[in-house]
Amino acid sequence: MKHWLMKSEPDVYAWDDLAAAGGPAMWEGCRNYQVRNFMRDEMKPGDLAFFHHSNAKPSGIVGIMRIVGAAYPDPTQFDPRSDYHDPKSPPDNPRWLAIDVEAVARFDRIVSMDELRATPGLEEMLLLRRGQRLSVLPVTPEEWAVVCGLVGLDPETVQ
């Protein structure tokens, strides 16, 4: 199993939107080739991901979600009414992917960027690197354990 961090602006898609789905929900709209490659080549059902609210006050990790299916063509790329429409993406060879996720655990508090930066063991976390803009990032097992510990979760029991 791998661990991930997936970012969304809460005014676009928030933790509460995922929780309200009551089951699997589509994580769509990613328009970066590296993110697409992570979804296509590395994300697997059962993987866990931190849900990170970006461009928020404060920005930070708000919960954990699970990947519940394999990546598939993102339908928003073909919808001219969608903000994520890509007229250059051919239907017979789609450029962009989506993946289904479900809520696992909401944190009692936001683990802010400032707290993450100040926490020993997270110095190399990709999220904290200058200029890092990807909306999906791998998280090492050690980083996963440190962040879970910040909110009192045993990383071995998070399912």
Descriptive overview:
The chain has 159 residues and is α+β, with helices and mostly antiparallel strands. It has one domain: ph1033 like domains (ph1033 like fold). It is 20% helix and 28% strand. The protein contains 4 helices and 7 strands. Strands 1, 2, 3, 4, 5, 6 and 7 form a 7-stranded mixed beta sheet that branches.
Task: Outline the fold blueprint.
Blueprint: E1 3-8, H1 15-20, E2 25-27, H2 33-42, E3 48-53, E4 60-67, E5 72-73, E6 97-112, H3 113-118, E7 136-139, H4 141-150
Parallel strand pairs: 1-3
Antiparallel strand pairs: 1-7, 2-6, 3-4, 4-6, 5-6
Mean pLDDT: 96
Q: Can you count the beta strands?
A: 7
Low-pLDDT stretches are none
Give the biggest sheet.
7 strands, mixed
CATH top level class name: Alpha Beta
Please trace the helix and strand order, writing H or E for each element: EHEHEEEEHEH
Radius of gyration: 15 Å
Classified in CATH, the superfamily is ph1033 like domains
Q: How many domains make up the 3D coordinates?
A: 1
| Number of contiguous helices | 4
CATH architectural designation: Roll
Note the overall shape. globular
